[in-house]
Design brief:
Blueprint: E1 2-13, E2 17-20, H1 21-28, H2 34-41, E3 45-48, H3 55-70, E4 79-83, H4 94-102, E5 108-112, H5 118-131, E6 137-145, H6 155-158, E7 163-175, E8 183-191, E9 199-204, E10 210-216, H7 218-239, E11 249-252, H8 257-266, H9 278-281, H10 288-298, E12 307-314, E13 318-325
Parallel strand pairs: 4-5, 4-6, 11-12
Antiparallel strand pairs: 1-7, 2-3, 6-7, 8-13, 9-10, 12-13
Helix pairs in contact: 3-4, 7-8
Length: 326
């Protein structure tokens, strides 16, 4: 028998304020249109955090939803990992603030910065810690307030992002060590710092003394995205003796509908087998995959026994995949 990190609960939170493309353009005086944005990205709406909402508030709400889904009290949580590039502060970690807000036990709590790939990185770290015997129940959360770091004069980027948080509760269980086991089967992580500048946040406490705005070379990111994502998904399938035909659901990072559709085609998946939320959420970075998981699990699309592939690419460049059976 082997230890498996089971996905015991999923939860998400979106701030109440939802803006359409036209509303966003009017609010910030942008020379753009709903048709222009939808044609290039597939985005129709995004959610915006209230002035008094921090990343930890969004994360705590998603965590509570995941715990409720699992039926586990917060006091039994052994650890919290928050993937975010928009933390409340340099320190303490946003995860520590979440720990206090939900009343979790005094286990570990720390943040991971891997941009849009952060949730996949978080799953990998949590599983490793569980295998090492450091925890039985770990919350992995993606939480972002990107509307605070975009340049509202740059219509090429500011329309792409939204705020939100998603969470999963991983609980230790037993498996036979085969690809039929429930839980995380494997995770696969990569980075290439040579391409860091094509998607980055300006400055930082350790360089300029303060954080600046998000900058992106969209065409360059797109060029890397599909090839790297396809390769890392095939890497995960091969590691588990699986093929494209074994995939029940693709839950991709929600950056751009064109990238999502291209990945579905590469994997020979029918559109109905790809979970899409980018049209309603925009790009919520590290929160996008757990938000999509929470939606598809909550509405009954993802059922027990289904094989789910997750993939993401983000600033770093970072990219990765994870395969799990519910």
């Amino acid at each position: 028998m082997v230890m498996r990190a089971l996905i015991a609960g999923c939860g998400g939170y979106l701030p109440p304020l939802r803006l359409s493309n036209d509303e966003l353009a009017a609010r910030h005086g942008l020379e753009t249109s709903d048709a222009w944005i939808q044609d290039r990205t597939g985005i129709k709406f995004r959610h915006v955090a209230a002035p008094d909402e921090a990343a930890s508030d969004l994360a705590a709400a998603a965590a509570r939803a995941a715990l409720a889904d699992a039926g586990l009290p917060a006091a039994q949580v052994d650890g919290i990992i928050v993937a975010t590039t928009t933390p409340d502060s340099g320190f303490p970690a946003t995860a520590a603030r979440v720990q206090a807000k939900i009343g979790a036990g005094p286990g570990f709590a720390f943040d991971i910065t891997a941009a849009c790939t952060g949730f996949i990185y978080g799953l990998s770290v949590a599983e490793a810690m569980m295998r090492a015997g450091h925890a039985r129940h770990v919350l992995v959360i993606g939480a972002e307030v990107y509307t605070r770091i975009v340049d509202w004069t740059d219509r090429g980027t500011c329309v792409l992002f939204g705020d939100g948080a998603g969470a999963v509760l991983l609980s230790a269980g037993e498996g036979a060590g085969s690809n039929k086991d429930r839980g995380l089967l494997s995770t696969h992580l990569h980075a290439d710092g040579r391409h860091g500048d094509i998607l980055a946040i300006e400055g930082g406490a350790g360089s300029t003394g303060g954080t600046g705005l998000l900058r992106m070379a969209g065409k360059e990111v797109f060029r890397h995205a599909v090839s790297k994502l396809a390769a890392v998904v095939d890497e995960a399938l091969a590691a588990n003796g699986l093929t494209h035909a074994d995939i029940d659901w693709l839950v991709p990072h929600q950056a751009n509908l064109r990238i999502i559709e291209a990945m579905g085609k590469k994997l020979n998946l029918q559109p109905g087998r790809v979970v899409v939320t980018v049209d309603r959420h925009a790009n919520t970075s590290a929160a996008s995959i757990p938000l999509a998981l929470a939606e598809a699990r909550g509405d009954g699309r993802i059922k027990n026994g289904d094989l789910v592939v997750m993939e993401a690419i983000g600033g770093g460049l970072t990219w990765g995949s994870a395969i799990a059976r519910f």
